[in-house]
Amino acid sequence: MFRVVQNRTLSFEDIGEVTAYFYSTEQPINSFHYVKKIAYDIRKQFSSMPQDVCLHIVNSPIGGTGYLFITERDGRYRYPAWLGIRVYGIPVIGEDIDEIISKNKTFKSLKNSITNSEEAKKTKKAIDELLSNNAGVLSVSKFNAVLWSLFAKFLDISGYTTSVDESFEVAQKITNDLEGYDDIDHQLAKELIAMYQNKHFTLHDSLVVFVDYGIQPSFIADVLEYLLNYDNKKRKSTGSYYTPVEIVEFMCEMSFSQYVATHTSLGEADADAMIHDMNISEVVPLERREEVMRRLWNIRTLDPACGGGAFNIGVVNRFMHLYYNIDSDLSIAKHLGCDNNFDVKKHIITTNIYGIDINPLAVAVTRMRLFLSLLSEATADDYKKIDDTFFEVLKHRIVCADALLDDPFGCLHNQQKQPSLF
């Protein structure tokens, strides 16, 4: 797919010498799916390297496209060791590489420029200033203005919609069963959308495997938590706290590994290897990989207090990561009725993912993030597969209810008919 053409030793003031590898690929780097594949392969190579930090510059002669990656090992994660390996990436043009590296004297500043962490902080501050300038209490209409405007921005960069009105129609389809869904401060939303114009957004939520450049869909959940913090008593009473991505990934990884070990013919060691090993398709026979995939295909996962969807998104990403490991050519998925990665993710979201939250705003955010996660795997042709049925299924999978008192999925009422729903 790509090959090393040279390497150089760079020096940073804070961590010393670092090796930079330069790669060439004959394919244009024009889709996130391909970028993610490169990140997976770079991570696999880095896992066997002794260094704690490396730079990787991948260039394509087609269109002059390129990507700058950082691989970093965090020693805090000794088991499983792979959890501590992160890959950060940013699109670049070949001649910009030297300028980017030379102007960042420390590794920390280079990493910050790639992860774009300051952009998210500045955007949150700008949202806060706009809210402060709008007189009155922080009402549902203002909450919705912030959430819908962010959702509209992500839809805009996806190409799924071409106007704010179209984006708001999609937001209505996702939230029209929730109390106060259509109570929105349109003037505030208009001001927010104008403010986002110069910000860089990406459709791709952070993974332990790969962190893309830009403001991610997880920002919607981050902003929701931030807004709830206006009323600290309400935040504490509802338990509205964001779960760090590392914790989400670790818990999802442990759950998947344990499930595979106890529900398939694989032992614990083989199951653990299948969850982590990027070369698993080369060493595990097709029939055993197919056994695992078929076993996972229709399981149901539930977060009974889903908040902003951190665990729901984590489970989706874990499914996709595992399926990529064991079925990278989609040979098994095609037997299960899926033609591409979009079909696989659509199946996961509509079959494997359930969530409950008592806060309708949190439910709206989780649904939005799941929909954006689906769009991150989509092409223009895939958009045609998203119909009203999908939105109805999504609303029945992520519901507003009290998980302690209600029975939104009829598990108790229909216990004899569906004793193993979860």
Question: If strands are numbered along the chain, what order do they take across the biggest sheet?
Answer: 1-2-3-4-5
Number of helices: 19
Poorly predicted residue ranges: 418-422
Number of DSSP E strands: 8
What gross morphology would you assign? globular
Average pLDDT over all residues:
84
Proportion of residues in extended strands: 5-15%
The span between the termini is 41 Å
Structural class: alpha/beta
Computed CA radius of gyration, to the nearest angstrom: 22 Å
What composes the largest sheet? Answer: 5 strands, mixed
**H and E string:** EEHEEEHHHHHHHHHHHHEHHHEHHHE
**Helix fraction bin:** 40-55%
Short précis:
51% of the residues lie in helices and 14% in strands.
How would you characterize this protein structure?
This protein is α/β, with parallel strands linked by helices and 422 residues long. The chain is 51% helix and 14% strand. The protein has helices at residues 32-46, 96-103, 107-115, 117-133, 140-158, 164-175, 186-196, 218-228, 232-238, 245-263, 268-276, 280-283, 286-296, 310-326, 331-335, 341-352, 360-375, 380-383, 388-397; strands at 2-12, 16-25, 53-59, 65-73, 85-93, 301-303, 353-357, 398-400. A hairpin with a 3-residue loop joins β1 (2-12) and β2. The longest helix has 19 residues, at 140-158. The chain is globular and about 60 Å long. The chain starts with a strand and ends in a 22-residue tail after the last strand.
